[in-house]
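Standup notes, structure subgroup. Blocker cleared on the adenosine-5'-diphosphate input:
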Amino acid sequence: MIEVLVADITTLQVDAIVNAANRSLLGGGGVDGAIHRVAGPELLKACRALHGCATGEARVTPAFRLPARWVIHTVGPVWHGGQQREAQLLENCYRNSLELALENNAETIAFPAISTGVYGYPKKQAVAIACGLMQEYAPRFKSIVACCFSEEDAVLYRQAIGGDI
Ligand code: ADP
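Run returned:
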């Protein structure tokens, strides 16, 4: 099942939440900042031990003070106009995060709209990629949540899932 929610991802009681991190994995703004604030300083300590992450890859840590069990940190591509493998890299983020969730026996997982904030990926295109991967993996999870930060984003996800894009 794919669910589209308008929520702060740090409040969700799912097995895994996905963080739109940067390559340092040492925290940042946006959803990354929110996750670190709520998880507490133990998360930064766990992330330091990972020594960064390449764009498109994913790493897992415990979620510490968050209601989730795991945080899957993935590094989305910065949008440079679409000619620098951005679509392939964004697809890799979703696939690698979903595979890592399965390896950790997660049955429920929530994603923010990776790369669509500071990294500037055009929302409609990013949502199409996100929904393609969520639909591919949906049979292997109890629930995959598209966690939107605004109602306008939720409309884009609902349209994409309905094939209306
Ligand atoms: P990126 O650097 O990958 O673009 P951002 O954190 O800037 O990451 O934005 C990614 C998406 O996460 C944006 O759509 C933004 O609105 C959304 N977002 C920001 N904070 C939260 C939050 N607490 N919960 C869910 N989504 C969030």
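Discussed briefly. The longest strand covers residues 16-21.
Next: hand off to the docking folks.
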